[in-house]
Amino acid sequence: MFLAEPPTTQFDLHFRIIGFHVRVTPFFWLAAGVLGHSLAVHFSYVLQDQSPTIGVLLLLWILCVFLSILIHELGHALAMRYYGMNARIVLWHFGGIAVPESVSSFVGFGARTKPHAQILISAAGPAAQLLLAIVVIIGARLGGFRVDTWIDWVNSTFALTSDNLVDPSPKVGVLLTFLLLPSISWALLNLLPIYPLDGGQISREICTLFSMSNGTRISLAVSIATAAGVAAYQFQKGFMFNAVMFGMLAYSNYQMLQNYGRYGGGFGR
Rounded to whole angstroms, how far apart are CA atoms 197 and 122? Predict the structure, then answer.
């Protein structure tokens, strides 16, 4: 969940779901396509002559990413609604944002900035995605499929083994992968204590609970160290895009820490 809402364009997709207005920018579809292209190419070789084509696989990936990210932002929006806030959802670039619009008369404005409320709101997005992954895994297991054949770490995580399970067909396996991969990886990524990711906002609120005066500075220091560590690890593994992204997050957090020390405020409030 990122903090800055992008400007509207004439090419945005608009719809409503369970009372929330959702806007999807063209850049969301583009980013999802860029991220999934190599995966679609890989699975086109796995499926060989069984079709579908790379284009169809890429479209399936984009739709699965759309579903996963939408559920993530719905988690945030529903938590906001619980605390008396209306919200709208925007999907763009590599993620989305749930934007609070108003506060009900039953809840004061301060409720949206109370640490316990912000922690739950921030955690609700990744929790919703992980719940989606659990539902998909349980559904596959009930259908008799061995999910860990396609995503190795799923079986060790959920420890659901049975001699009666069989390997899914290649097409079913691709669908399971496309649903589980963004849901689990995006949720875990967002839980890293790096601002402005959800984990960074949770870290800020927890640190503030223990120290009102220094909590923000501590959380920014944790954010910088974590982002720099992840960037170094990704660089070592040869994932240059991820290394650059986390390096930029480390630098932006360093700038925020410098500005906070100079001017004393304004961190995500």
Answer: 9
